[in-house]
Amino acid sequence: MRWVLALLPLLLLAGCATKPPMPMEEQIEVLDLDQWSAPARPAHWTLTGRAALEAGDEAGSASVQWAQSADQYRLALRGTLGVGNLDLRRDNDEVVLKTGDGKTYVARDARELLQAVTGVDWPVEILRYWVTGHAAPWLSGQARVNASGQLIELRQNDWVIQYDRYQVINGYELPGRIWAEGEGSKVRLAVRNWTIEE
């Protein structure tokens, strides 16, 4: 697998690869997750945006379209991972991955499937919580919250996730930029658009 290093600077232009300045220490409240009152999380949503991806010494970028409906999802990545386009979806208990070379793979665990095909180890089933600014409910961790009550940093499952550029969509407060780092991988996501379906 070879990612295209030359694509990474494109994300710099979009403001995706630079971490946000952390607020002053006295403006931050550090809470265990069982003490944090998380905001409401939408069950049905779609996001589009751009992502910068790193694993070890390799890096690349991709356009992202992610549609989530309860536990079902479809995640489309365009332009990375050395296999061209990727389409990952979960329907009931089955995960299907289609690659840019026309191959289709089926499994029950999305993380194991993605790692086996691309070599990338991402906690896919947890990312659907993190991307909306929420913790995975079955895992412990720590939240850092600013004076406005917004989550600015989440530590969970050996990952650190940072957030900024919040926006209110249909009554839900959702992040516009997300940085996630853990287990030798980094993901930088700049959200272009959120759509909420009630």
TrEMBL record:
Keyword Lipid biosynthesis: no
Pfam families the UniProt entry points to: LolB
Protein origin, superkingdom: Bacteria
Record localization: Cell outer membrane
Signal peptide: 1-19
Membrane topology reported for the UniProt record: Lipid-anchor
The keyword Protein transport is assigned to this record: yes
This protein's UniProt keywords: Cell outer membrane, Chaperone, Lipoprotein, Membrane, Palmitate, Protein transport, Signal, Transport
Gene3D superfamilies per record: Lipoprotein localisation LolA/LolB/LppX
Matching NCBIfam families: lolB
Stated family: Belongs to the LolB family.
Record's protein name: Outer-membrane lipoprotein LolB
